[in-house]
Design brief:
The structure is a homotetramer. Chain A is an alpha/beta fold. Chain A has 2 domains: about 80 residues, Alpha-Beta Plaits, CATH 3.30.70; about 190 residues, Rossmann fold. Helices cover about 35% and strands about 30% of the residues of chain A. In chain A, the strands form 3 sheets. Chain A has a 7-stranded mixed sheet with strand order 7-6-5-8-9-10-11. Chain A has a 4-stranded antiparallel sheet with strand order 2-3-1-4, with helices on one face. In chain A, α3 packs parallel to α8. Chain A is globular. Chains A and B meet through β11 and β13 of A and β11 and β13 of B.
Chain lengths: ~280, ~280, ~280, ~280
Amino acid sequence: MKTTILIHCPDQAGIIATVTSFISKNEGNIVYLDQHVDKPANVFFMRTVVEFEEHFSHLDHFKSLFQKELATAYNMKWSLHTDDKLPKMVIFVSKYKHCLYDLLSRYRSGELAVEIPFILSNHNDLKQIADQFNIPFYHIPFNKENRLEAEKKQLALLEKYEADFIVLARYMQIVSGTLINRYPNKIINIHHSFLPAFAGAKPYHAAFKRGVKIIGATSHYVTEELDAGPIIEQDVTTVTHSHSIKDFIAKGRDLEKIVLSRGVMLHIARKTMVYNNKTVIFS
Amino acid sequence: MKTTILIHCPDQAGIIATVTSFISKNEGNIVYLDQHVDKPANVFFMRTVVEFEEHFSHLDHFKSLFQKELATAYNMKWSLHTDDKLPKMVIFVSKYKHCLYDLLSRYRSGELAVEIPFILSNHNDLKQIADQFNIPFYHIPFNKENRLEAEKKQLALLEKYEADFIVLARYMQIVSGTLINRYPNKIINIHHSFLPAFAGAKPYHAAFKRGVKIIGATSHYVTEELDAGPIIEQDVTTVTHSHSIKDFIAKGRDLEKIVLSRGVMLHIARKTMVYNNKTVIFS
Amino acid sequence: MKTTILIHCPDQAGIIATVTSFISKNEGNIVYLDQHVDKPANVFFMRTVVEFEEHFSHLDHFKSLFQKELATAYNMKWSLHTDDKLPKMVIFVSKYKHCLYDLLSRYRSGELAVEIPFILSNHNDLKQIADQFNIPFYHIPFNKENRLEAEKKQLALLEKYEADFIVLARYMQIVSGTLINRYPNKIINIHHSFLPAFAGAKPYHAAFKRGVKIIGATSHYVTEELDAGPIIEQDVTTVTHSHSIKDFIAKGRDLEKIVLSRGVMLHIARKTMVYNNKTVIFS
Amino acid sequence: MKTTILIHCPDQAGIIATVTSFISKNEGNIVYLDQHVDKPANVFFMRTVVEFEEHFSHLDHFKSLFQKELATAYNMKWSLHTDDKLPKMVIFVSKYKHCLYDLLSRYRSGELAVEIPFILSNHNDLKQIADQFNIPFYHIPFNKENRLEAEKKQLALLEKYEADFIVLARYMQIVSGTLINRYPNKIINIHHSFLPAFAGAKPYHAAFKRGVKIIGATSHYVTEELDAGPIIEQDVTTVTHSHSIKDFIAKGRDLEKIVLSRGVMLHIARKTMVYNNKTVIFS
């Protein structure tokens, strides 16, 4: 069984040796280790992948030992993930097709190690894509009047299906604090600019007006401040004076779908850690 | 003699045919033509490179005909450039070496078809590089008190040497409206971010704080609004959580020097046109 | 009606003026013009988009005039394309899903202005994707013994459905000279390397073995010499020592699908011309 | 004192724990650790940066303990580097200026932590650049007749100045096996293509002829097989049909200088390890 352990804690001398020795003594073989120290913040980050001996049968014992002997002493925040259960990923969409198609195509091609219990939208337009891929689709209209009630329905569905994380695949709606607090660093959004440039609505129009020579896309975890959450992945492409806003949008679609899918894949692989509104990406 | 003609005017049907026929009738052979229509603004742009017949000896006549028969009728802004005289490029620097070294190395390698009459700085630090390349160096200190007087000296030098355009090679000072108005779209600056992100001072610190995964550089014509002038060229490079601010600065240096030099080369080759605070780059 | 005219011919002075004047005189308004001269080969290329006056009703007359007055005199190869009929694009696949999913997703999203009369494969694996998108699927097994017969069936289908061009979406089979000659510069393949590096089979394995730091993909027109046809589009991505062959393949999938789709879109938009086994891409 | 330790050896369980515990016990604080396992080859690689306690004064003792307790047991190849002495870098050039200018500009700007004892060339053309930067320049002509004698002179100079490594900054000569064996994985070359494409001479001409849409550059360690040594760094840029061979060369110059300098900087920082004709780059 492949086990991924994520740790962060105040930095101090000897910490790598201590953790790796602990794992060795407890019958784990470290097959991957990456570490980072955020010096200004004095925080130590570590991601390690461990394979336990075949007869190993006491992960709960390992975890309680880890907590007692290491985590408490070093004031660690840590988590341990095994690969025996697929995480449940819910997709929120609005009317744009390209990100949804890309995610579902990868899912059916075996590129995403998840379950997709359902797709949720405030419009009915993309139901036919959900049908095409045989995934339940819920249409929960959303407007100023029914806002609270709609959110309640969303949360009920997420609970019912035991969602692990949410992907906003060009969802085009601002997500409420309630939802964000329920899924901290577990809601991934795609913004169609190289943030922090052109935060907010209509970034391609703003980019065209400014006359930039590159456009971009950014996948990030959603926080309460709009388009200001921890950035997971960014990419850009060049544009010239000869490209219209329509061309920006067309070129941007390819960026958006790739950058969102890369962000999702990093999240699934437990390669992301969040601290101080920034990510550590052990890729 | 190679002649470059730049035109922009309100768009209308038949304009390409009219201009190209005029040139043909007047013994010019079009060896390159690029054209662009800014549809929202309804403006036509054209850059054409013309070779005249060997016996051709009346460029002034051509120019006055062009004005009379075409430019007035079509309400054109136009300019004509021959390659028999090198433009005079003045470099303003402060304390950073990399952009100056890159420009002077290209100059000495024959990559920049310019004369460099002098280098100007508010500090004395880079005099030795100017000496190394045998280029006059003027040190004009600059502070709140002597601001106006210093500018007067700058302008006097620029006039005396008949500067055609100015390159701010990490000059680190805000250029006054007087200078900008004297050299409109003729002052090229390098900003160390992918504008409009992180305009203003200390962009690498801001980028680090925001946790972006790409950093960039932008060369642009200087206008009175800080870091908001027409963008000539941009490029980016990737960064990760493992890069410190010092790493951002080091990676950024390579971007800055390349993006500035590309901007300068486009300007020298008459491949840039400015309209509505944006550039048309016929590259 | 939007009309695209593609021309190439021996270069000579005055040719742009002659063509643009001809179009103007014949009630066409040039909305786009791009031109290129291959100097070593002394060949002139031009792509122009023309809008004819509303009452214009004699495209056949225009074409015969164009041939008589221009094409014969200048020894032009030329073609004229109107946008009133969608080209018919046939997709050949084998077992890989990602390129097929990307093409069909774009098709359903309205990004590809084509009809897809059918998908053809030497395996049955991807029939379910064709079904999912409601597109006819033909399974024609292919082996050493039935080679000629299988090709006959392929050709019969292509004729029956009046295919305009063919996309090999990771087809994994060598296409015969018969098919290539029937569809010259009309069969688009995706090769999973930055050609000419790693031509032939298993490029990711070869790239891994060589220890390259970039991998790439190339879309090109198929010619009889394997992986040596005119290149339409290429792109690359970085890899490191930490990536396994499996990682190369995963990163490559994203390159392949984007580079193939871009090549297909350039072809559909009539932005490609082929000469001397190279492409001129008026993008 | 900052100490960098590089290790590679057959992979086995527990090795990270063993090494890190050893360092901790011997008063070293691990400030950076990166590790890699080449699974097909079953080789473990590790780079760690260690800071020893202030009173630490027995590096020789540490080294002999390391050899005895770890290296022998694990069959390690290892090296330990302190930062108290700058490595001596010799530059070989021919007639091209751009890479030499870039290296010397970085050197004078403090970007390269080396000494440059001398520059060597088979031509006299670049002597003036060496003079400009006050670095000794040796002109050793090189031809079929004097080959062996010239090499002897080269080796004598390298010995005399105690060169640590050699940079071929567009040297344009094939280096002999004698020199390569004397400086294994210590001669860095820049090749002006994205190897393995266009190995050998005149890669830009070959790239132009093939009609590629990207060109590149590769820095690599020199081995006896031409252009086939371990790749350190590669980068590419896009080209179009409109670029002539001259344009390829101009765009390539910027790639070459950046890719060579990056390769040199990785080497200086001890971030490169070589195994099976490939590099592990801990960047």
